[in-house]
C-alpha cells in the first residue's frame, strides 16, 4: 500500500536571510590584534580592517579606501591612522581621513565607515546594526568575573570557519538530545529561559561511560552548565566539571561567532579555568588546554553534521525535543528593524524538559553498549 502524497511530511526552507543580525559580535582576542599591524577580517558580507592606533585603542573600519578602493588591511599603521597602500591616504579610527600627504587639503566628504567597538575581558567586539543605530544602553555584554585576573588562567582559544548559515549553531540552545549523540554527555536536567535579548540553557549531565577514553581513563563524572546568549552571537557558559571523588573544576566557556556572509560564519570558542592551591598556574593552564581540546572534539562533530544537513524551517518534533520554534522566534528579533520587534520575540518564555524518559533510555543504551564491548573483547581474547 502506497502512502498518499498529501501524507508525506515535506521539508520547508526559505532562503537564508541576507541581512545580518543586529547586536554585538566578538571578532576575537585583543592580544591577536595588538601587534601594531592592520588585520583583515571578512564579516557581515564585507571586508573590515582592525588596527591599534598610537592612542592604544583598537579601531575597526571598512577595509576598502573610499579614494580608489585600496585595501587598508594591506597598508601600514602610521601614528594614530591606517595608511592606504595605494596612495597613502591616512584614515583615523573615527572614519575620517586625517591627511593626504600629497594634497593641499582633505575633501570634506572623506569619510568611511567606523564600526562601534568594545574591548572587554580580553576580547574585541563590534556592533552591527543594519539600521545604522548605536547600541542601546541595556543591550550589553556582561563582564566576566575572573577574566583577566590572577585567579584565572588566560583564554585558551579556538577559531574555525563553518560553511553554513549561523542559525544552525543557535538551534543547539534547545537541543537536549544532541548532547548524548554528539557530545558524549547524558543529560539529566534541561531547561530554557528566553527573555529580552538573552537566551539561557540550564543543563546537568553525566559523562557517557561507553565511549573511548571513559571509565578508568576519565576523571570527569559530569557537568553543570548555565549558558546564556547575550544577543545573537555571544554565549557565556558558566561550566563546572564534576570529578570522581567529589572534586569540582570551575571554568568559563565562550561560544561565539560572526557571519562571513549568509552561508558561512567564523566560530570561536575559548575557555578559562579557575586556579587553586591544588591547581596552580601552570597546571590550571594545562587543564584549560585539555578541557578546551575536549570541547573542540564536540564542536567538530557539530560542524560535520552542519556540513551535510539541510536547512529546515518546519522541523518535525517530538515532546522531548524542546522549544525549537520558540527559540527561533526569539532569534528573529535580531533580523528585523527595532520598531518591528514583536512581544512574542522578547517576552519571558520558560520551559523545562522532562528528562525521565530519555534518561532511562540512554542509560539502557549505555549499558547495552558496554555489554557488547565486553563480549567483543572476550571473543577476541
Description:
With 381 residues, this protein is α+β, with helices and mostly antiparallel strands. It is built from six helices and 18 strands. The protein has helices at 167-170, 177-181, 281-308, 324-332, 343-346, 356-380, and strands at residues 23-29, 39-43, 46-52, 58-62, 76-78, 81-83, 90-92, 97-99, 117-120, 123-128, 156-162, 185-195, 198-207, 220-230, 234-243, 248-261, 264-273, 349-352. The chain has an eight-stranded antiparallel beta sheet with strand order 11-17-16-15-14-13-12-18. Strands 5-6-7-8 form a four-stranded antiparallel beta sheet, with no helix packed on it. Strands 1-10-9 form a three-stranded antiparallel beta sheet, with no helix packed on it. Strand 3 (46-52) and strand 4 form a beta hairpin. It is globular and about 85 Å long.
